[in-house]
Hints:
The protein is mainly β and 347 residues long.
Amino acid sequence: MQPRSSLRLITLALVAVAFSTLLASPAITSAQQPYKVIDQWKIGGEGGWDDLTADGQAHRLYLTHGQRVDVVDTQTGKLVGAITGLHGTHGVALDNAGKLGYISDGGGNAVVVFDRATLATVATIPAGTGPDAIVYEPATHTVWAFNGRSKDVTVIDAATSKVVATIPLPGKPEFAAVDGKGLIFDNIEDKNEIVRLDARKLKVTAEWPAGCEGPSGLGFDVAGARLFPVCDGKKMAVVNAKTGKVLATAAIGDRPDGAGFSAAHKLAFASCGEGVLSVIDAAAPGYPTIETLPTQASARTMTYDASTDRIYLPAAEMGPRPAPTPQNPRGWPPIVPGSFTILVVGR
């Protein structure tokens, strides 16, 4: 038989362990909770949209929106300004000094540089034809604008705002991602490929099969060296970023255009135009789809803010689909004016 004092000490120890477990459990539960739409911000205005970029430190969201870039305060969901006078915007890249932003102005065949404090335009740099995806490469302090129609990439020295190279690509580029150490990866949509580019050598150093057809959005697990292109056929491929080997294929929603990755939670995301956000467990064997979150039809692009574990998706109400015409061969439905909205996903 244990002495009464020893039993009391054991009991107190067990109570302390149970209490500490109870305190820790909400955080564990929170990390395992599914994502949900927690807010909707009505932006309004007219025209279509493309990519968007979150600046977690400054609590800002940059939305390409027709001939302008809208800027939203992510703490209030309110518009705080816009960069205007553009011709057809597609993407926004941000430098790592917190000072400048770069817009791919596809309609103007240019990259527009703006001051992030004042939102004033400070330079307009000629690019190739139809610049679309755009990224900032921090190791070389260069900006890479991927030109969809001329099928090349314009490389800009951020210090001088001068073009330092134009690199031919094997096909039509889509979304791109950087490793922060001088490598850039880009989807080649019409060739079902991923290319690797060296920012110091200024050339393509590898061409790999994407593992699926029509790759558009591209998530990137930098630490794990895995690329996540999202494709037609409701597929997300998983590609080794060192060797180009296709590791797996995960199931996602239809008509994806955006992708992201959470390093903290080892999750890959695909935003799909059918109106779902697919969440893939990138730490589990087989890369299972652990959530298919209803969003809104047309919510095809996304950006992930790692600082808040939130995903932002633009969407709008669409009118009736018209019959195809020479001007609109795919019969895209019109956007209902004033319906442009940002969906905020979190947990």
